[in-house]
Specification:
A 5-stranded antiparallel β-sheet has the order 1-2-3-6-5, covered by helices on one side. Strands 4-7-8 form a 3-stranded antiparallel β-sheet, with no helix packed on it. The protein is an alpha+beta fold and 785 residues long. A hairpin with a 2-residue loop joins strand 1 and strand 2. About 9% of the residues have low confidence. It comes from Carlito syrichta. It is found in: Cytoplasmic vesicle membrane; Endomembrane system; Golgi apparatus. It is a peripheral membrane protein.
């Protein structure tokens, strides 16, 4: 005998009473069989009960797809009890991936036009939850009619449905513009809050809507002023703050309307100052309103005094006991440090105090902001604070802190000696966390400061004698001892207590480094070279050095073995040339100068469109030579033929008359990537004097609420092209429209073939690693023809 079907309450009780997963599955399988049998029999009276049980099973994670068509039957039923369960099932079981969701469009349209408020509410909730673009386009006019219905219940749900429609189909914005203007006069809280949200969505997605609603800024200002001064209603007040949710929504809308609009910004300046000074900060609701006020002030064209007030509010947030508020303040100040540097500088002591936070996320933000605040006037004090933080900071922050100190010292160092001392302190404290180029930079710095050679070699020798575990420090010390080891023996330096060192002590220390298990192969290579150089700089016999070098002639590491064999050959066969070969290294040009030259070249290339063709030929030839070097000695690169001057141009040169080439039409920009607020745009320049050369500027912007970090853009082109990627301006794009990343691509197209780009983007966003690979094959024809 088949057991009867259970009621929903009994089914819930049995499932909860199951002791094992197997018992639970057995109960659900039996009941699903009863539900299927009931659906096949077509029992209309109990169909809604069976579907309600099936929805509970679906919530538990078991398959319930066989109930989709039953949802459609219940929605089409005239009974309210059936419609209620049917619409609930449609929201849970149907979505845009199922074609069945389109079958309820006609039922929703009929229910919206019936005039029964509960049924209209069910239809609107379902449409706003799972309505596809096709459904939104078909039902937009029905929803627009409901926006002005007398019932607040229906109007509120219709407004929320309109928000969903605008997000799905931005082209429907023109339908909802007239009702929104009328709805702003409503006093019902839910309607007014929903209307502000709808207008915000319209302005973000439609420039026409943005221009339309900029005319109602005075009305929005009056609504917010009424909230601040007299309040809306006591039932919507939170902790003494009058309706903070509505205040935040209005401030967010004002920020959108006032961005890059002088008249609207001027209208709301006084109100923003009033909100910023009169809002209570003792409660979290007041802090939320204040923070939204600060964001609005910073995004619109506000007065200078108002921006200083906003920065001071963020400075007060740094003193709040709530960690979340302090984190928000640090993030916001980091965005403002470029535009309002002097105002943010006033809160530097508070920011430095935040470095001592035990929360890693807070100390990380404080570190980023502290590094951004370093300038030529405070570099000594800030570097001292950052060095103190480097000694106790968490391991995951040491690399960022060490790199930031080195970059700040390189940019703002007051003297070379201070610069050398700073780098040595970083290498001593966190040498294993520094960037790979720190060793080369310090070597170049010491080599270029001839007056500090003796001072540097003594400092490095003392540091090496104290600790040989920091490999970058050991490498720099080995190079410096090899170059200037003779100065260690002289005893005169700028130090108050001269260091007395013998040649045996120097050799013993270097042998200790060679024998240490902590030394890397690259470090041993530095030490071997230093020993060879000391053979020409230290007095006495070189037998000890020859013995040490000969040991590594049978080393397993190929690089060390080759180096030792060559040095042994230098001792045996070419001893007469050893002193000349091992002379002190000449000064090597700094890498920063090369970067500056490349930046200057890119600026000159951007200005080529305004220059005469004759002046562009040397620059173009330099660019082509640089591209040839990048592609190697293959010889496949083809230089474009020189342009033959036209008779008119030649006559102009002959008569010494000014002859300008006709201006080229600008190439339109192209957006090639967009995801969660992250956008990548391409802009193009073709220098007239070099028609085969295309300069592409990649601009990465971020309008989302989270920072984009560790951003890397890689590109590839077909073999007939030559591509050179310049160094990007950074790898982090702050949230909410912060300073973008720019990168220059130089592409040589001698055959004028259609251009195709393959891009690979990797970055971190909202705590997740993102990797995107895509091809750009819709570049404008002007880029290659």
């Amino acid at each position: 005998m088949v057991a009867p079907s259970l009621k929903l309450q009994d089914l819930i009780r049995e499932i909860r009473g199951a002791r094992t997963q197997a018992q639970e599955r057995e109960v659900i399988q039996k009941e699903c069989a009863h539900i299927r049998a009931s659906f096949r029999n077509g029992d209309p009276l109990h169909r809604h009960r069976q579907l309600a049980k099936l929805l509970y099973v679906h919530i538990l994670g078991y398959p319930a797809h066989f109930g989709q068509m039953e949802c459609l039957k219940l929605i089409a039923s005239p009974r309210f009890t059936d419609k209620r369960v049917g619409y609930l099932g449609a929201m849970l079981l149907l979505d845009e991936r199922h074609d069945a969701h389109l079958l309820i469009t006609n039922s929703i349209k009929n229910d919206l036009s019936q005039g029964i408020q509960p049924v209209q509410g069910l239809a609107l909730c379902t449409l706003s939850t799972m309505g596809s673009a096709e459904m939104c386009q078909d039902l937009a006019t029905e929803v627009e009619k409901l926006l002005l219905k007398p019932s607040p219940y229906v109007r509120k749900k219709a407004i929320l449905t309109a928000v969903h429609m605008i997000r799905k189909v931005p082209g429907l914005s023109s339908i909802f513009l007239p009702p929104c203007t009328q709805l702003l006069h409503e006093r019902h809280h839910g309607i007014l809050l929903g209307t502000i949200t709808l207008i915000t969505e319209l302005c973000e997605r439609s420039p026409a809507a943005l221009r339309h609603f900029q005319k109602v800024v005075p009305q929005l200002v009056q609504i917010l002023r009424t909230l601040v001064t007299t309040g809306y209603s006591t039932e919507h007040s939170i902790s003494g703050i009058s309706d903070p949710f509505l205040q935040v929504q209005i401030l967010r809308l004002l920020r959108i309307l006032g961005r890059n609009h002088e008249e609207s910004s001027e209208t709301m300046n006084d109100l923003l100052a009033q909100v910023a000074t009169n809002t209570d900060t003792s409660r979290n609701a007041g802090n939320a309103v204040l923070f939204e006020t600060v964001l609005t002030i910073m995004d619109i064209r506000s007065a200078a005094g108002l921006r200083v007030l906003a920065v001071n509010i963020l400075g007060c947030f740094l003193l709040n006991s709530d960690k979340n508020i302090r984190y928000v303040a640090l993030t916001s100040l980091l965005r403002l440090v470029q535009s309002d540097h002097s105002a943010v500088q006033r809160h530097r002591p508070t920011v430095v105090e935040c470095l001592r936070e035990t929360d890693t996320s807070l100390s990380r933000r404080a570190l980023e902001l502290s590094l951004a605040l370093v300038n030529s006037s405070n570099v000594r004090a800030m570097t001292q604070e950052l060095q103190a933080f480097l000694e106790f900071c968490p391991p995951d922050l040491r690399a960022n802190c060490a790199s930031g100190i080195l970059l700040a010292a390189e940019r703002f160092a007051p003297t070379k000696r201070w610069h050398i001392d700073t780098i040595l302190h970083v290498l001593t404290t966190a040498g294993t966390y520094v960037r790979d180029d720190a060793v080369a930079n310090l070597i170049q710095l010491i080599g270029g400061a001839q007056e500090l050679h003796a001072y540097s070699v003594r400092r490095l020798y003392s540091a090496l004698a104290h600790d040989i575990s920091q490999q970058p420090l050991v490498q720099v010390a080995a190079w410096c001892i090899g170059e200037y080891g003779d100065l260690l023996l002289e005893g005169n330096s700028e130090e108050t207590e001269p260091l007395q060192v013998g040649d045996e002590e120097i050799l013993a220390l270097l042998e200790k480094v060679l024998q240490s298990h902590m030394s890397l192969p690259a470090t041993r290579g530095y030490v071997l070279t230093a020993l060879m150089k000391l053979s020409t700089r230290l007095p006495g016999d070189n037998n000890r050095i020859r013995q040490v070098v000969s040991i590594y002639g049978s080393c397993l590491d190929v690089e060390l073995q080759q180096r030792a064999v060559e040095y042994n050959a230098l001792f045996r066969k070419y001893d007469y040339m050893r002193a000349a070969i091992l002379e002190k290294m000449p000064l090597v040009e700094r890498g920063g100068r090369q970067v500056d030259e490349e930046a200057e070249e890119s600026k000159e290339a951007a200005q080529l469109s305004e220059a005469a063709p004759v002046s562009t030929e040397p620059q173009a030839s330099k660019l082509l030579d640089l591209l040839d070097l990048l592609d190697g000695p293959s010889g496949d690169a083809q230089h474009p033929p020189p342009l033959d001057p036209s008779p008119g141009v030649a006559l102009g040169h002959l008569l010494d008359l000014p002859c300008e080439p006709p201006p080229l039409a600008p190439i339109p920009n192209l957006r090639v990537f967009e995801r969660k607020g992250v956008q990548l745009n391409l802009s193009f320049i073709r220098p007239p004097g070099t028609p085969a050369l295309l300069l592409i500027t990649v601009t990465v912007t971020n309008s989302s609420g989270g920072d984009v970090t560790h951003f890397i853009c890689q590109a590839a082109v077909p073999k007939s092209f030559q591509l050179q990627l310049q160094v990007p301006s950074g790898d982090t794009v702050p949230a909410q429209g912060g300073l973008p990343i720019t990168q220059l691509f130089r592409i040589l197209n001698p055959n004028k073939a259609p251009l195709r780009l393959k891009l690979r983007l990797t970055y971190n966003h909202f705590g997740q690693s993102v990797q995107e690979i895509f091809e750009v094959n819709n570049l404008p024809m002007e880029t290659w023809q």
